[in-house]
């Protein structure tokens, strides 16, 4: 049995197989390869794209989805998350998809289940399916020629699990990862080049990935307002100019803080393409883990 906790759980060959399946699922043709399977979603943090994407992906493959309302679950009666998951497992689902604010929690639950666990985001640590769909979007745009492409991940790289997963995944496919952030949001490591301003590297880039400022993950105020932050870190048409750069964002986008309205409408913005790709990638992941 295989779980998906972090992107390293899949080899490069397995990822390419997921991409092959995702291309087929992008046709959005009727498919019932998971008919009779039951998938449980357990989200302890808010989610729109990830949760709905997983659920739509599962239903497009013929599976049934049980979405548990954690607000009324037995964890509010004192039951531990481990007992909650063990009880769900005793009902014999075919996969459990979980999001939680605690780093490492999805991995710690793997010993309590007889079905795959898929990490839909754990704290600041990892968001593997988001990184896979980001890579897929890049891979498809450049027709598989990712070696030597240069990306700048811009914003709150310190707190972003998306940044964390992409830092680990993209270099495996030859992509040069660079980080752009104010000092308070800088990554605490030295294996990547880091910049204070995107203008320092803009002429070298093929890809920009903008991030949402993770205000809910900070215990102090770094900027007087989001508008103050946006002065230096919002991706605008003035910043990108006429350069041949594609623009990504994991969502939700804070308009005119992360990316300007104008750039979101620009053909170089692949933000909605990422959402479409997310359904196909997650369908491919479900197929791989459930039918293995």
Automatic annotation (TrEMBL):
<keyword id="KW-0808">Transferase</keyword>
<feature type="binding site">
    <location>
        <position position="49"/>
    </location>
    <ligand>
        <name>carbamoyl phosphate</name>
    </ligand>
</feature>
<dbReference type="GO" id="GO:0006520">
    <property type="term" value="P:amino acid metabolic process"/>
</dbReference>
<comment type="subunit">
    <text>Heterododecamer (2C3:3R2) of six catalytic PyrB chains organized as two trimers (C3), and six regulatory PyrI chains organized as three dimers (R2).</text>
</comment>
<comment type="similarity">
    <text>Belongs to the aspartate/ornithine carbamoyltransferase superfamily. ATCase family.</text>
</comment>
<feature type="binding site">
    <location>
        <position position="130"/>
    </location>
    <ligand>
        <name>carbamoyl phosphate</name>
    </ligand>
</feature>
<feature type="binding site">
    <location>
        <position position="50"/>
    </location>
    <ligand>
        <name>carbamoyl phosphate</name>
    </ligand>
</feature>
<dbReference type="InterPro" id="IPR006130">
    <property type="entry name" value="Asp/Orn_carbamoylTrfase"/>
</dbReference>
<dbReference type="Pfam" id="PF00185">
    <property type="entry name" value="OTCace"/>
</dbReference>
<dbReference type="InterPro" id="IPR002082">
    <property type="entry name" value="Asp_carbamoyltransf"/>
</dbReference>
<feature type="binding site">
    <location>
        <position position="252"/>
    </location>
    <ligand>
        <name>carbamoyl phosphate</name>
    </ligand>
</feature>
<feature type="domain" description="Aspartate/ornithine carbamoyltransferase carbamoyl-P binding">
    <location>
        <begin position="2"/>
        <end position="140"/>
    </location>
</feature>
<feature type="binding site">
    <location>
        <position position="127"/>
    </location>
    <ligand>
        <name>carbamoyl phosphate</name>
    </ligand>
</feature>
<dbReference type="InterPro" id="IPR036901">
    <property type="entry name" value="Asp/Orn_carbamoylTrfase_sf"/>
</dbReference>
<comment type="function">
    <text>Catalyzes the condensation of carbamoyl phosphate and aspartate to form carbamoyl aspartate and inorganic phosphate, the committed step in the de novo pyrimidine nucleotide biosynthesis pathway.</text>
</comment>
<dbReference type="GO" id="GO:0044205">
    <property type="term" value="P:'de novo' UMP biosynthetic process"/>
</dbReference>
<dbReference type="GO" id="GO:0004070">
    <property type="term" value="F:aspartate carbamoyltransferase activity"/>
</dbReference>
<feature type="binding site">
    <location>
        <position position="161"/>
    </location>
    <ligand>
        <name>L-aspartate</name>
    </ligand>
</feature>
<feature type="binding site">
    <location>
        <position position="212"/>
    </location>
    <ligand>
        <name>L-aspartate</name>
    </ligand>
</feature>
<dbReference type="InterPro" id="IPR006131">
    <property type="entry name" value="Asp_carbamoyltransf_Asp/Orn-bd"/>
</dbReference>
<dbReference type="GO" id="GO:0016597">
    <property type="term" value="F:amino acid binding"/>
</dbReference>
<feature type="domain" description="Aspartate/ornithine carbamoyltransferase Asp/Orn-binding">
    <location>
        <begin position="147"/>
        <end position="287"/>
    </location>
</feature>
<dbReference type="GO" id="GO:0005829">
    <property type="term" value="C:cytosol"/>
</dbReference>
<protein>
    <recommendedName>
        <fullName>Aspartate carbamoyltransferase</fullName>
        <ecNumber>2.1.3.2</ecNumber>
    </recommendedName>
</protein>
<feature type="binding site">
    <location>
        <position position="77"/>
    </location>
    <ligand>
        <name>L-aspartate</name>
    </ligand>
</feature>
<feature type="binding site">
    <location>
        <position position="99"/>
    </location>
    <ligand>
        <name>carbamoyl phosphate</name>
    </ligand>
</feature>
<dbReference type="InterPro" id="IPR006132">
    <property type="entry name" value="Asp/Orn_carbamoyltranf_P-bd"/>
</dbReference>
<dbReference type="Pfam" id="PF02729">
    <property type="entry name" value="OTCace_N"/>
</dbReference>
<feature type="binding site">
    <location>
        <position position="251"/>
    </location>
    <ligand>
        <name>carbamoyl phosphate</name>
    </ligand>
</feature>
<keyword id="KW-0665">Pyrimidine biosynthesis</keyword>
<comment type="pathway">
    <text>Pyrimidine metabolism; UMP biosynthesis via de novo pathway; (S)-dihydroorotate from bicarbonate: step 2/3.</text>
</comment>
<dbReference type="GO" id="GO:0006207">
    <property type="term" value="P:'de novo' pyrimidine nucleobase biosynthetic process"/>
</dbReference>
């Amino acid at each position: 049995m295989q779980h998906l906790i972090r992107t390293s759980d899949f080899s490069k060959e397995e990822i390419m197989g997921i991409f092959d399946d995702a291309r087929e699922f992008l046709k959005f043709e009727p498919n019932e390869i998971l008919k009779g399977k039951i998938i449980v979603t357990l989200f302890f943090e808010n989610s729109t794209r990830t949760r709905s994407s997983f659920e739509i992906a599962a239903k497009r493959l013929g599976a049934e989805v049980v979405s548990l309302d954690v607000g009324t679950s037995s964890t509010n009666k004192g039951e531990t998350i481990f007992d909650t998951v063990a009880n769900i497992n005793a009902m014999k689902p075919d996969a459990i998809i979980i999001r939680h604010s605690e780093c490492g929690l999805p991995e710690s639950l793997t010993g309590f289940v007889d079905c795959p666990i898929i990490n839909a985001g754990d704290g600041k640590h990892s968001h593997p399916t988001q990184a896979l769909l980001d890579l897929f979007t890049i891979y498809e745009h450049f027709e598989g020629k990712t070696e030597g492409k240069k990306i700048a991940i811009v914003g709150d790289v310190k707190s972003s699990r998306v940044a964390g997963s992409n830092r680990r995944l993209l270099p495996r496919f030859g992509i040069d990862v660079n980080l752009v952030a104010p000092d308070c949001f800088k990554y605490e490591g030295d294996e990547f080049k880091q910049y204070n301003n995107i203008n320092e590297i803009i002429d070298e880039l093929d890809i920009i990935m903008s991030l949402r400022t993770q205000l809910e993950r900070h215990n102090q105020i770094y900027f007087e307002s989001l508008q103050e932050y946006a002065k230096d870190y919002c991706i605008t048409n003035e910043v990108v100019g006429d350069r041949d750069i594609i623009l990504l964002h994991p969502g939700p986008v804070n308009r005119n803080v992360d990316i300007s309205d104008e750039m979101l409408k620009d053909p170089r913005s692949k933000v909605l393409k990422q959402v479409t790709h997310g359904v196909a990638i997650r369908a491919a992941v479900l197929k791989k883990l459930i039918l293995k």
